[in-house]
Specification:
heterodimer, A: mainly alpha, 10 helices, about 80% helix, about 0% strand, globular, B: alpha+beta, five-stranded antiparallel beta sheet, 20 strands
């Protein structure tokens, strides 16, 4: 019990004093996850719009697939990306394994189906309301998709934040493709795993606090976007 | 404009088998109880329901078993029950969205004309989310007009509005056909709305057309069974005369006879007024009655008496050329010795009067 309290006090000290090692890890985490979510949105949202608005063979299968992939285990994503990027893999020549880029790729793969599936749901329900009006106006499918994406922008922010929450908290994928190398690919979750196994509870707890704070902030942002009646 | 429909479908427990040809001019009300198929028919005309049967306008086949003209190729504008405005655009942006897609050959309706007609000049730079329900519907109507339609379809456009917003919008809707030279089909199950704005009525019940014609005629003859909420009555036309501000009462001249109805603000003298009188709100007396709270006592002549099965009898009355209906009992008819040709007095409570401005 003594250890736990001491760890918490030390952790708070690290966080409050802006410990450089801690700050470096946090910054990398935010950069990797932020980039991954932006990429996932750029791919997932148009894909969601296509699935919501488009009528083409295989659409049902694709919807089923994106929905199923929402629950993709991070370690499996890590394994697949590892196989692609390892020296023996098809993209091994790029030399990306154990770099932040590899981690970004892994998290983007993890989050894209989530963004696509949630966007599709948002846009499909919106299309139900607007489809007759848009048909009467003679809007094409592309125009319809673009109009809905714009009109749903606040709901889509919620979707992006859901992806962010998922990516920043995962550990399996970044551990496998990043390798948890100090000053290179160590992020909050992998650092917590490592420091805990080393018995360095103070740093692990400090990172845990920051991670929880970020999770709380993301959820607060979600609620703020959802509650504002102008954006509902 | 001549509209010819032959529509049929079946889903759930509902059967639609509606066929008929209608001349559209002014505001035509498509009236019937909820679930009668009004919206389905309107959507078929708009082009949202392929495979529902035949739609023909002025001899042009819009759809049948083998052909289907897409919605945006039909010269119609549709106003839905809720505005369905785009929140990411300003009001002006929403109007431009429609104007960009307008039918070039349609009536030359410009954004300025639509904005003026609907009284939304102050709203153009606002966000849709900041508008009231009534304001949103005004914008939705303006947007539908800007597609330059030859026929305007309205699907219970006042259904989600409160009384005040309704009262403000009804005269505006009534003015559209003349202003833009396009007929309007107005779907509603509210007889109060219809009597205020429609010139014609198509009645629908259980997926079938059960009658159509000029509004006054339909109000008189419409089978009370068309809807549980509808009651037989008559539509009377008169002119506004004086207003009694102290008591918030307005006098209406019905061609010799004067009646009083509740009205907070005065109508301009000489203005045409239509009032709907339900048959059950009209009583018959042999002479004027004193010491009674009923204000309106109008001399009339009995034209016919129709006894019904059971206790009731419907008495048709002539009031200076206009028809009035009174619902009474066979017992009363017998006790008072009422007969066609008799001069009697029709008693109408002022509170029973519905108003229609035209």
């Amino acid at each position: 019990m003594q250890d736990v309290w001491q760890g918490i006090i030390e952790a708070a000290g690290l966080v409050l004093s802006g410990d450089p090692a801690l700050m470096e890890i946090i910054a990398l985490s935010l950069r990797v996850t932020g980039t991954a979510v932006v990429i996932a949105c750029l791919i997932g949202m148009p894909l969601g719009a296509l699935l919501a608005v488009g009528r083409f063979p295989g659409r049902g299968t694709l919807i089923l697939l994106t929905n199923a992939l929402m629950g993709l285990p991070p370690v499996v994503v890590g394994l697949l990306v590892y196989m692609m990027l390892s020296n023996a893999g098809p993209l091994g020549i790029l030399g990306l394994l154990y770099t932040p880029t590899a981690m970004i790729i892994a998290q983007a793969v993890l989050v894209t189906p989530i963004i696509a599936a949630l966007s599709r749901q948002v846009l499909a329900s919106m299309l139900q309301e607007y489809s007759e009006m848009l048909r009467a106006m003679g809007a094409s499918r592309v125009e319809t998709a673009l109009t809905l994406l714009r009109d749903a922008r606040f709901a889509l922010i919620t979707v992006a934040l859901a992806g962010l929450g998922r990516a920043i908290a995962e550990v399996g994928a970044v551990l496998i493709v990043g390798g948890n190398i100090n000053h290179a690919t160590r992020v909050m979750t992998t650092a917590i795993a490592l420091e805990t196994s080393k018995g360095n509870l103070a740093l692990a707890l400090g990172l845990g606090m920051v991670l929880i704070a970020i999770a709380v902030a993301v959820n607060a942002a979600l609620m703020a976007v959802g509650r504002n009646p102008a954006h509902a | 404009m001549r509209l010819s429909l032959d529509l049929s479908t079946q889903y759930g427990g509902f059967t639609l088998a509606a066929a008929g040809t209608f001349d559209l001019a002014g505001v035509t009300a498509l009236f019937g109880p909820s679930g009668a198929g009004k919206s389905t028919i309107l959507h078929a005309i708009a082009g949202f329901r392929p495979g529902l049967g035949q739609v023909e306008v002025n001899g042009e086949r819009w759809q049948d078993a083998t052909t289907m003209r897409p919605a945006h190729c039909r010269p119609v504008g549709t106003v839905f029950q809720t505005g369905r405005l785009f929140d990411h655009l300003t009001i002006m942006g929403n109007l431009r969205f429609a104007a960009k897609r307008a039918d070039r050959d349609g009536p030359q309706i410009t954004p300025d004309m639509a904005i003026e007609a609907l009284g939304i000049a102050d709203l153009t730079q606002r966000d849709p989310t900041t508008l009231s329900g009534g304001e949103r519907q005004r914008v939705a109507i303006a947007r539908a007009l800007l597609t330059r339609p030859r026929l305007l379809l309205m699907d219970e456009p006042l259904g989600a509005l409160d009384r005040r917003a309704k009262a403000a919008l009804l005269p505006l809707i009534a003015s559209l056909p003349e202003r833009f030279q396009i007929p309007v089909i107005f779907v509603s199950h509210q007889l109060e709305e219809i009597t205020q704005i429609a010139s014609r009525m198509i009645a629908l019940r259980d997926g079938r057309f059960v009658g159509d014609g000029p509004l006054s005629q339909m109000i008189e003859t419409l089978d009370p069974m068309v809807s549980g909420r509808f009651e037989a009555g008559a539509l009377l036309t008169g002119k506004a005369t004086r207003h009694e501000a102290t008591y918030a009462m307005q006098a209406i001249d019905l061609g010799g006879a004067e009646i009083w109805m509740p009205a907070r603000s005065p109508l301009s003298p000489g203005q045409d007024v239509r009032v709907r009188l339900r048959a059950r709100d009209v009583s018959v007396a042999l002479s004027k009655v004193k010491g009674i709270s009923i204000r309106n006592q109008v001399p009339v002549t009995i034209t016919s008496i129709a006894p019904e099965d059971g206790a009731f009898a419907e008495i048709t009355l002539d009031l200076a050329g206009q028809t009035l209906r009174a619902r009474s009992t066979r017992l009363s008819v017998s006790e008072l010795g009422l007969e066609p040709g008799m001069q009697v007095v029709a008693l109408v409570k002022s509170v029973a009067l519905d108003r229609r401005l035209s």
